[in-house]
Hints:
heterodimer, A: alpha/beta, Rossmann fold, four-stranded antiparallel β-sheet, B: alpha+beta, seven-stranded mixed β-sheet, elongated, binds adenosine-5'-diphosphate, binds magnesium ion, ABC3_permease_C (chain B), transmembrane helix (chain B), transmembrane (chain B)
Amino acid sequence: MLKITGLEKIYRTEDIETMALNRLSMEVKEGEFVAIMGPSGCGKSTLLNIIGLLDDPDAGSFQFNSIEVAHFNERKRADLRKRNIGFVFQSFNLIDELTVYENVELPLLYLGIPATERKQRVEEVLEKVQIMHRKNHFPQQLSGGQQQRCAVARAVVNKPKLILADEPTGNLDSSNGNEVMQLLTELNDGGTTVVMVTHSEHDARYAHRIIRLLDGQVVMENVLS
Amino acid sequence: MIRNYFKIAFRNITGTIGYSMLNILGLATGMAVALLIGLWVYNQYSYDKFLPDYAQLYRVQRNFNSNGDTLTFQSTSLRLADALRNQVPEIEYVAESDWMGSHGLMVGDKKLFIQGGQIGGDFLKMFQFPLLSGNANTVFQDAYSIVLTQSTATALFGKENPINKMVRFDNENDLKVTGILKDLPSNSSFNFNFIVPFSYVAQKDPAIKAQYTGSFGMNGYQTFVKLKPGISYAQVAPKIRLITHVETGSLNAKNSYVTFQPLQRWHLYSNYVNGKDTAGFLEYVNMFTIIGTLVLLIACINFVNLTTARSEKRAKEVGVRKAIGSLQKDLIIQFLSESFLLTLIAFVFSMVFVQMTLPAFNALTGGKIGIPFSNAFFWLLMFGCVLLTSIIAGSKPAFYLSSFQPVQVLKGTMHPGKTRSVSRKILVVLQFSCSIALIISTVIIYQQIQYAKNRPSGYDMNRLIQSAMNNDLDKNFTALKNELIQKGIVESITTSTTPATDVSWHSDIDQWPGKNAGETVEMGTVFVSEDYFKTMGMAMKEGRNFTNIYDTTSVIFNEAAISRLQIKNPVSQSITYGKKQYKIAGIVKDALMISPFSSADPMMFYCYPTRQNIMLYRLSPNIKTQDAIVQLTSVFNKYSPAYPYKYSFVDENYAAKFKLEVLIGKLSGIFAMLAIFISCLGLFGLAAYVAEQRTKEIGIRKILGASVLQIWTLLSKDFIVLVLISCVIASPVAFYFLNNWLLKYNYRINIGAGVFILSGLMAIIITIVTISFQAIKVAKSNPVKTLRTE
Ligand SMILES: Nc1ncnc2c1ncn2[C@@H]1O[C@H](COP(=O)(O)OP(=O)(O)O)[C@@H](O)[C@H]1O
Ligand SMILES: [Mg+2]
């Protein structure tokens, strides 16, 4: 599903250049659950953002479903993104002014899905992540775990083929963290490809495969049974 | 999707109610000012356009060549009116008219002394003011008829039907009411309460009738014409231009050429320069259009600054929306609909403000404008304005906010507040430049008014009263005078053809010592009776006063006349006026009877004590004004029972000459204050934002030992520098425009540096007060608390 070869990303500030990704290559197959690990600053988020089409690389190739997307323009990227990719962030990134229900509904609005179907699908995923009873609350009124479950619901409501999660449990305690990992696993079991960045060896064990990065390069891959 | 936008917009507005109120209040004030000015400007442009066929209506003017200068007069001769009527087939109707002064109307014991016109019989066919009863073709068939406006009719007849009833006119004749006009709208150049056919005047006074066949130089009346349908002025202009030149005997006629001014231009184009009607009142209309636009712009800038300053808060939302799949286009639409909603709320507030302030505004401008609630076009226009304002105010924040890159935002590596601070500063400078320029204008206008008010007028206005003469007062003047003086009510009394505050008649002087061949001079001409100069308090410079009412072969000039005519050793020299010879008895000092802003007109005074227009009298020093008025009323009623006693104080009439300038001064003062107020709202919001952003920094500084004063300086310094820059920009701009404005006054101030320093100082003080609210609050806060919240 994802085929990355020789990917480079350089950040330039006034005095320093940072090679965030250094000729990185990797592949993710459809239906896989991949964990990306590595020390802070090694380029994990940068990689995830490029995979998520939020950022573009300076060099290298990125094929999404066999289509070269590395140099797509913003319009094409947005279109691909909203149909195929769901995001889960460490800091949840829910919109404070919208309720749980409205946050989850948002991707469907951007896809132009009719109201009745929207309602049905939103309620379905809220049911699935077990925060239906909180659907009219605003994000600040929820616990961290509930917020992240809401974020997961928002990520999957448009039935994406790929879910990208950047340290989804980083701000959660272990029991809330486990619930979220459980959710991701269930989604993966249902056929969704998951790519997750994590610092936690425990969480990484939910994945099929662990890719370890150092200084913008893949240094090791472990396949888990 | 739109619903989602509005939902989030609404929650944003209510969620940060403080900022939103600042934003809405500023925008609402700006829109209210713009709306008020817009209504006023619309009203000015609508003058006279309610009349059917207004484009075919004109007034006749005479351009008079006065030694190289072309002066434009609207006083014309009856002979010209007849010539236009009979010789120019393109003209459909001609109406001659007097100058519409006040007359006495009496029905039973009801007495009115009100303004009205004596005007050619075709007038109502040309200027089709709606008649409630009567027919425009027939109302003036008989010379002894009168048409009343509805309120005049009600004042005279109450609920009775006035048609065919009699009105005693100037206590001379009974005129039959033949028509009732709807009251004239306030945006009419005409302002009469009744009209009488000119044939009445001509029939009553053979001397006036004779003027139809007299000279083109006897310019005592105004003339209106209506061109035939489809005829343009250009077709007529060449035929009328030299129409008076057939009369070879009159220098006045030979030196004049005739033009028409279209009704559409009467109100706004009143200023004549070399025979052309240049702007005039239009200048003020334009000036206020600019001010209204500027104030609205200032309010829009607030909106931009407050919205972009708060963008850090919105950044996350933008990032998330983009990550989910929103395009920049969608976000632009979202933010624009948000600004539309805010603008709409501000518009509702501004309508409330305008509705509340309209009575005061009308009282100030003397207008009668209102919000045309039932006019669909108005609402359409307002909708357009709201849309436009929301685009002007909202597009910058929309494009800015929507351009955030989700990666940066979500990573938290982005500090949107800072990157924009330069352009925000430019906007603040723009705002304050406008506001300061308005303050400077206000100060200069006030200085100019004050300067002219303090100018010696050349006569003594204190306790001086003027009343209009009438037939009865004319007959009984001596008796009235004796009684008033004997009873000690007045100390001096006289009559004159012109009021103390005007020169209503100018005429040519025929001969004077040292006249060049072909030279003509139009001079202010006043016929007076005994004690005129004494009553007016005008001092003689040379020679003597009139000895008594029989001193009819003497003329008295003012200083301006002597220097205009360049007569050496004037006293006792001879001049010719109206084919009669007069001796110069004396020279009186100049008095500012026409305009306190220009130099005194050349004037000549003759002693001619019959049929005069104005009675002038000064109250005795030892009588209280209220008592005097009571006694005057009873004496006047005794000698002129058919007219109500009416009077005006000369000092008040003189003060009225500053009306336009005072109005302009007040309006620009009010708008300057509002502009500053709106700018300060914005500054207040920005200061709050900066304080909020720097809470942590300030906390650390305080822990390290910074004083409240040091923190205050830190936070205020930047803003004060911006206002100083604005002063530097505003001063030359304001100087340029006001210097131009002052040029229209002969008697004017020189703009000094003081005004700019004063205005700048005012702006800086206001700025300091505004920011200090925030700066001191932050500077005094407990650093331990502020740091913990990080
Ligand atoms: N916007 C940026 N500007 C400059 N340097 C950046 C930027 N984003 C990330 N970096 C640098 O790139 C490297 C990789 O960052 P990142 O992908 O966020 O690492 P990780 O998520 O693995 O901690 C780091 O050294 C980081 O400092
Ligand atoms: Mg990271």
